[in-house]
Every structure is written in structure tokens, then in C-alpha cells.
Amino acid sequence: MALFVISGIPAAGKSTVARLLASRLERAVYVPGDTIRAMVISGRAEMVPGAGDPELAQLLLRYEGALAIAAVYLRAGFDVIVEDVIIGQVLRGFLPLVPVPEMHLVFLDPSGEAVADRDRDRTKTAYGERWNVRQLRDVLHLETARIGLWLDSSELTAEETVDRILNDLDASRVMPSRLSASAVRRRRFGPPR
Q1: What is the pTM of this model?
Q2: Distance separating alpha carbons of residues 78 and 74, to the nearest angstrom
Q3: What is the pLDDT of residues 148-169, one digit of tens each?
Q4: DSSP state of 124
Q5: Closest CA relative to residue 100, chosen from 80, 114, 116
């Protein structure tokens, strides 16, 4: 049993890749962050630029909920793929919540143009009044610790992206319990070299 966490900015292809990855495993469960977010019927604190403590606390609660579901299925012998936007400084809050000693962490990092094109083709849009692609790519590249596997999926199909993940599991392997908050802060930031 393995826990996979697929992250990246909105419209990076996380949901498509996570579902396809789950379908390629023998027994797998897909836990989408958007579904956990939608469970909050009233009192939802939306993530916006300059979000404060209430919004960040609710975001971490969403992550905790997704990982609680993951833990149930992992104990039952399933592989689990959790998918959400886990970028920037909130990654430090996410890692201590992980219920297993080892996971596979994948950041999908297509170009800004690819993200904008994909967002235009979706029924739901992530960009507009609150965020733009450049802002969230900056958070990903400048504020997110370089751990796990980072994939520029701009020119890859979803199938090719899943192939890359499955063909190099060592690259995505992360041991959250060994990464203290200070260790994550010291990790190299910035775009891949």
C-alpha cells in the first residue's frame, strides 16, 4: 500500500492524473481535495490572496480530512491518491498530518501557457477575480520546498505523466516524519535547474 499526493496549481492536471494513476493500480482510492472542500456547506473560508489564519486553518483541516480518509483505506490494503493544491508555506503544515512514514509526493508543474489553456477548457475556472496563473506559479516556484518529484507536464499527456510517476517511484519518495519544519524551510526553492 502506498500513499501518493499529487499537488500543483489549479488546472495543472492534478485530478486527471490522480484518477488515471488510481486506475493503473490494483486496488486504489482517489481522494480529491475539491470534494473535501465541498463538504463545508456553510462557514467555508475561501483561500484568497493575503489569506489569514482562519483561511489557513480551514485549508489544513481540509488536508487533515483527506488524509484521514486516506488512512482508512491504507489500513484496508488500498493504495491512495490524494490530490489537492498543497503549495507554498502550507506544505510545512501538511507534512506532519501524513499518516504514514513514507509517501510519494508529486508536483505537476506545466508552463503558465499550458495552465491557462487547460483552465479555458474546464467547466470550472480557477483563475479570474482572486488569483491569476502567474501568482500561483510564483507561490509554487518561490515558496514551495523542492521535495518529491517535480514534473513539467506541459508537453506530456496524462498517460505519459502517470508513466513518469510509476517509472521512478524513488524520485517521488518522501519520508514526512524525517522532514522537520526547519528542514523543509532549508530546502532549495525556485524553478527546476
Answers
A1: 0.89
A2: 5
A3: 999 999 999 999 999 999 999 9
A4: S
A5: 80
- State how far the Cα of 89 lies from the Cα of 140, in Å rounded to an integer: 10
- Residue 30: strand pairing partners: 81
Model confidence pLDDT, tens digit, residues 23-63 = 999 999 999 999 999 898 998 888 777 778 888 999 999 99
Domain boundaries, the chain: 3-186
CATH superfamily of 3-186: P-loop containing nucleotide triphosphate hydrolases (3.40.50.300)
The 10 Å Cβ neighbour count of residue 103 is: 24
pLDDT at 123: 72
Phi, psi for residue 59 in degrees, rounded to 5: -65, -45
List of long-range contacts for 33-38, beta carbons under 8 Å, 24+ apart:
33/62, 33/63, 33/66, 33/82, 33/83, 33/84, 33/85, 34/84, 36/62, 36/65, 36/66, 36/69, 36/84, 37/62
Q: Are 6 and 81 spatial neighbours (Cβ–Cβ below 8 Å)?
A: yes
**d(C-alpha 7, C-alpha 107), whole Å:** 5
